[in-house]
Every structure is written in structure tokens, then in C-alpha cells.
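input
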Amino acid sequence: LTLVAVLCVGLFGLYQWVVRSISPEGGTPTISELINTPSEYKGDVINLLICGIDYEEGRAYSNDPESNDGMTDMIMYMNFDVKNKKINLLQIPRDTYVGENYNTGGTGKINAVALKNDGIASLAQAISEQYKLPIDYYFTINMQSLKEIVNLFGGIEVYIPRDIEYNGSKLLQGYRNLDGDAAEFLVRNRHGDGYAQGDIARLDMQRYFYQGLFKRIRTATVWDIAKLMPVVLNYVTTDAPGSTLISLGVSFLQVDSANIMLCKVPTASAAQYYNGQYSILVCDADKTRDLLNTYFRSYTGPVDQLDIPTLPTAGASSDPNVQYM
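output
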């Protein structure tokens, strides 16, 4: 009994340390109750904002991972229907036009909202206001951790739909076990053959990496988790309480891959220029409204109109590319 008691105390201490380590520091604001999932649906569904913060060397902002001084270059909204064991994911392109209500440093892009305003809470507020989506908690991931995660897993098997080559890096079509460097090239590249739409084409290619990553996570062992713990402590921040983290992890393992859907915000096929120099993507608000009503409002019901700012565009909008894992 003494041994069990000591073990329990030790595990509880480890749990508290992990939770403190990945919680926001320095008074970083949590997401307002005003944009959370309505209380009557608590327990049935949880809505998360997942962001990758890019501290890439050579960019015009700090590389200090402690400062949150980086662009939010991966933005994903997760609707987790815990009751029915389903997950719907929405990719929001980093270059999406966010309007004039938030400071973007003159770029007009949604990926600058967190950096130029009050952190991830401001980005969550913008998405909730414009897309009419509730957000309960956020997770931020330093994109520099990608290589470490992949290498700690011993590589991740990913299907490459076509040969990809740019600036000396190359991936051949077929199933490939990608190491950290190859995985980083796959998810970051937006140049070369097949990338005429730049960031939109990159989002489509990233799906193949997500498929491989989800598959690998579902087969993770206790030892895999132990190896990943230092990466989580160094690179992940969330305002979700510890009990929620445990519940999310357990619930995620109960979701079949056939019930994980990924889509992206439809935007005008041709990029527009903002302030004469920044290439931005303009959301197709009507098509986005229909997409969100179909897949992301199973509890709250449809809305008639979104508040997404738009600009005059030419040509048809991109396909949301609804795909199941």
C-alpha cells in the first residue's frame, strides 16, 4: 500500500508539472466564455483552435520560442463530436483576408492577427466573430518541433501523390517513410510543379502528412509517449485544463479514422493583392457558410450569414475538398 501511495503521488506530481509546463504564462488571456460552445452541449462536443507558430530562421520576427513572436502559419479548427465519436477539421489558409478590424501589420492576412494583437485569444475571437464558430480552447505548436516529432516516431509513413521537387529537395510518388527533414519539406513546400496555387496546393499536400501522422499516433505506445513528452513540454501551449487534456486523449483513441473529416475554407482561385504588395486569399463566404452548416453545426444549427470580410475577386472559388482519413 505504501508503494502504491508513493507511486500515485509521483504520477500526480508529474501530471501537475506537465499541465503547468504547457499552460500559458505571463497572464496570456484564455478564450472568452462568450465564444465557447453553448453550455447545453458541454460534454457532447468540444471545439478547438489548433495553430502552428512559425519561428523560421531568416524571417522578420524573433526566433525566441518563449515570446510567441511568430506568424500563425497553420490554422486549423477542430469540431470534436465526442458523443458520436466524430472529428471534423477545417483548414484556414494562412493568407486569408481578415479585414480591417484587426491589426495585421499591413498585410491583411489572418496569420498576423495573433502576432499583432493580443495573441492567440485575438485570433480565436476573429474566427469566432467572422465564421460564427464557438471555440473552447486553443493549442499552439511551435512548427520547429515537427522534425523532432517525426524523428522520435522513427519516421512516419506518408503517401506522396506525385513527385515533388524544389530547390534541391525531392520526394518520389508512392508510400514513403519520411524522416524529419523530408516531412518538413513536404508540409512547408509551396513551389514547383503542381503548386500553381501556392498555399492552397500546400494545404492539400499537407493532408497526406496528417493521414500518416494520425495513423501513427493511434498506434503509439507508452514508450512513444514518454519520448514525446520533452517535445510537448518545449513546444506546445494550451489553455485547456489538465482534466480536459486527459479526456480528449482518451476520446480521440475511440474515433475511427473513417470518422475524421478534413476540409478547407473555399477561397477565390486567384490570389488578390493587398496594399499593392501582399498576396492574399479572399474567402467565398457563401460557400463557406454552406460548408460550416453541413459539417460543423450539428448541435448549434445553421446560420444564414457569416461576417467574413471579402474583396472583389475574379474567377470561381476553390473546392473545400472534403476528405475522410
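quick obs: The first helix runs from residue 2 to 22.
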